[in-house]
Amino acid sequence: MNYLLQSNSQYFEKSFLITGSFSTSRNEIKEIMINKFKASFKTSVTKNVDYVIAGKNFTESKIKLAEELGIPIIKSEF
After folding, report:
1. Which spans in the chain are helix H?
2. For 5-55, what is each residue's pLDDT tens digit?
3. Is residue 48 a contact partner of residue 12, using CB atoms and an 8 Å limit?
4. What are the Cα distances from residue 48, in Å, to 10, 18, 40, 51, 76?
5. Going by fewer Cβ within 10 Å, which terminus of the chain is more open, N or C?
6. CA distance 58 to 18
7. SS3 category, 34
8. How far apart are CA 75 and CA 78, in angstroms?
């Protein structure tokens, strides 16, 4: 897929963590975010994560830690 790079977005060149389940595959979500925003992805919640994307049945400990670190949580139905 060819996406227009959105360098003026708040998500441009930010790091994300994905937790939970989605109707779209995680790989497809990552591909869209990488192509559209030059996003990167982490596997654990740390101060280096800019946003957490939470789907259905998310891991509660990841959400709790993100909240403690002040990381914004995007609740999504991808």
Report:
1. 26-37, 60-69
2. 888 999 999 999 999 999 999 999 999 999 999 999 999 999 999 999 999
3. no
4. 16, 14, 11, 9, 21
5. N
6. 9
7. helix
8. 9
Smallest Cα–Cα separation from 2: which of 27, 41, 24, 34? Answer: 34
pTM of the model: 0.89
**In sequence order, what are the residues at sequence separation of 6 or more whose Cβ sits closer than 8 angstroms to the Cβ of residue 69?**
45, 46, 47, 49
Structure-token match 């060819």, residue found: 2
45 vs 62: CA distance, rounded Å = 6
Structure tokens at 30: 């990552």
Query: What is the greatest pairwise CA distance in the chain?
Result: 37
